[in-house]
Amino acid sequence: MQRFLIAGDHYIVRSGISLLIKEAILNVEIDECRDGYCIQHKLNAYNYDLAIIDVSMPSTDPVNLLRKIFDRWPHLKILILACKDTFITKYQQMGVRGFIDKGAEGSDILQTIMAILNT
Amino acid sequence: MKRILIADDHFIVRSGVHFLIKEAFWDAEIDECSNGDHAYLKIDSTEYDLVIMDISMPGTDSINLLKKILVRRPELKILILTMSSEDSYATKYMQLGVRGFINKEAGESDIRRAITTILNDKKYVSPRLREIGVREVNEGGPGSPLDVLSVREQEILPLILEGKNVTEIASILSCHTSTVGTHKARILQKLGVSNVIELKKMVQLFTNSPVQ
Question: Which of B12, B17, B52, B79 to substitute to test the interface with A, most A CBs within 10 Å?
Answer without folding.
Answer: B12
